[in-house]
Amino acid sequence: xxSVGRLRPRWAGYxxxxxxxxxxxxxxxxxxxxxxxxxxxxTRAAAWVIAAFxxxxxxxxxxxxxxxxxQMPRWWPLTGLWAACVLAAAGTFGFVMNALQLVxxxxxxxxxxxxxxxxxxxxxxxxxxxxxxxxRATAGTCARCGRAHAEAGTVRVPAPVSPAxxxxxxxxxxxxxxxxxxIAMKTTWALGGSFAxxxxxxxxxxxxxxxxxxxxxxxxxxxxxxTTLAALAGVxxxxxxTHEWGQVFPRWAPPLAGRRVPRWLPLAPAWxxxxxxxxxxxxxxxxxxxxxxxxxxxxxxxxxxSGWSGWTVAACGIGAFAAYGVALGAAAxxxxxxxxxxxxxPGSPGxxxxxxx
Length: 357
Known about the structure:
Layout: H1 11-31, H2 41-45, H3 47-64, H4 68-71, H5 75-90, H6 95-105, H7 111-139, E1 155-157, H8 166-177, H9 180-190, E2 194-195, E3 198-199, H10 200-209, H11 214-221, H12 226-242, H13 264-294, E4 301-302, E5 305-306, H14 307-338, E6 342-344
Antiparallel strand pairs: 1-6, 2-3, 4-5
Helix pairs in contact: 1-3, 1-7, 3-5, 3-7, 5-7, 8-12, 8-14, 9-12, 9-14, 12-13, 12-14, 13-14
């Protein structure tokens, strides 16, 4: 087998190592009592452990692109890289909601916290890329497509266009349907109606008190809630991940019609959404929605979100995020596997130079 460092770009491992230095510094800052970035009580208590795991992940990232990576037991770098990747992915919690607020409001509630979320998203991507490349290289498979074939004389071509398996498509439909109560609630308020005993005027007044931007307030006046627009965009993404038009631009998307959709274009927002909305919805459903129903906890009491009407409002949002986030993760995984480029021999039927697909 060729040297690990020659089978893939070396910069990813070094970039992940450099990232870990910054991430460890943030964790040590929290361990020392720092507040910037709004660490939770659990994060602060485990800051030293987090710093250790991230540090090991960075060391293994650099080792994976050097000769020393071949001299270690294979599971050492893989365990260190994936453990650090999971921790980094957990730190992206809330990224999507803050990003939407930034787009529509021009600001976020907590800039240091948003900075930590961006940092974690970058780190998760770098660590995952490094781990996958090392895993392929040490398994003797192609670093580009993950399959076993002769390394010399091959070209990389797009995978055949195909829809997601039926089970994944049904999961996507369920995830999209999970947004129906949320969209109905938000649209009712935007049109000035009442939902769960809460009037639309009160919702708009709450927006104004919280300093909503002119764009958000203008959309509300025309019966459009910005989170409804974001939900519809999310449903569009989910459908694209599971249908063929998500791999090749369709005729209704000129002038790109017929061209391949870059894999990163749907996968980047899909994985960010799955890693943030999914855990938020699932954990929120178990820890926030279920206790009042089972008589194990009280009802919410926070402004508009109070009593059973407030619980209903929270259920429309949290339940939607749970269903959508899980479906989005399944669709992203399927799309990533189905669209993985294939390496073929030059001049073979699969080579685009001879008119192959």
